[in-house]
Amino acid sequence: MTDVPFGVLLSGGLDSSLVAAVTARYLAGTKAAKQWGAKLHSFCVGLKGTPDLKAGREVADFLGTVHHEFQFTIQDGIDAIEDVIYHTETYDVTTIRAATPMFLMSRKIKSSGVKWVISGEGSDEIFGGYLYFHKAPNKEEFHQETCRKIKALHRYDCLRANKSTYAWGLEARVPFLDKDFIKVAMDIDPEYKMIKHEEGRIEKWILRKAFDDEENPYLPKHILYRQKEQFSDGVGYGWIDGIKDHAAKHVTDRMMLNASHIFPFNTPLTKEAYYYRMIFERFFPQNSARLTVPGGASVACSTEKAIEWDASWSSNLDPSGRAAFGVHNSAYENQVNSVAKTVEPEKIIPKMEISNLGVAIQS
């Protein structure tokens, strides 16, 4: 239902591609189609030649959408970081990494006359789509982690999608987070969501199978079964590597050694995190502001609790999907912790206690 021009965000990943496929399939014959045209407009952002641009273009061609690609450079992203931190009001590393290209794309989308877009946010939280879910020891742990992720959406992905778009007056809508759909998805026995290599089941297998229609396919097979790429990775691996290099030029080893004294709350463990924190504190120096940002260790977007699933992860606490060693096809080559070797992580950041959510498993 809309009385203004709209489109879909299409990264070429499973979630955004499914949203685009369903929208394109049911757009014809609607009031919106009569008013704005039966051709769906899709939007994608990335560095030149990156995974999302290539996959997004393939899906757009398959669906027949009017596709708009926005290429940005690492310098474009670096130049926008201060604005991104101001508008998203966070110093969380994952959020800023992903919000920056989304912020740049939103400006382009709004300038084209589109007022709102449909996005695939929430699917990974509901179905356990992040690569670290490969290490879930059992269905109870798997389900508890999805519940923790859903309850934290307003501090991470929904915060990013909401604020990086509304910074330009663009609205993002998230069908995966429809309450009725969440109820259906979370009532499924988590056994069917778990990754089982011996059975050929990858992340979000149940969602992929639901749309695996041989007679009237929603998506090309290789897109339907494409490995999970976090948005900040899919726009180009060079993006994260570039901002790490940029942060290293502005944050010295000595600054890292004193990090626990300068930032006793949510002490940054990496130079990139320290760099974001300096900018955040300049815009929002109040203690009440810094307390709104979540903390704790994370690997490949996990909660701190899920790090217990694999002891090797504690040596490389990076929120990028490439930190999921043995899972991601392009995992980091070396398990190197970016914290200075002379600094002990336990002394930098206090351990967070995550209470038992007590979520019942329903079959």
TrEMBL record:
<keyword id="KW-0547">Nucleotide-binding</keyword>
<dbReference type="GO" id="GO:0004066">
    <property type="term" value="F:asparagine synthase (glutamine-hydrolyzing) activity"/>
</dbReference>
<protein>
    <recommendedName>
        <fullName>Asparagine synthetase domain-containing protein</fullName>
    </recommendedName>
</protein>
<dbReference type="Pfam" id="PF00733">
    <property type="entry name" value="Asn_synthase"/>
</dbReference>
<dbReference type="InterPro" id="IPR050795">
    <property type="entry name" value="Asn_Synthetase"/>
</dbReference>
<dbReference type="InterPro" id="IPR001962">
    <property type="entry name" value="Asn_synthase"/>
</dbReference>
<feature type="domain" description="Asparagine synthetase">
    <location>
        <begin position="1"/>
        <end position="139"/>
    </location>
</feature>
<dbReference type="GO" id="GO:0006529">
    <property type="term" value="P:asparagine biosynthetic process"/>
</dbReference>
<dbReference type="GO" id="GO:0005524">
    <property type="term" value="F:ATP binding"/>
</dbReference>
<dbReference type="InterPro" id="IPR014729">
    <property type="entry name" value="Rossmann-like_a/b/a_fold"/>
</dbReference>
<keyword id="KW-0067">ATP-binding</keyword>
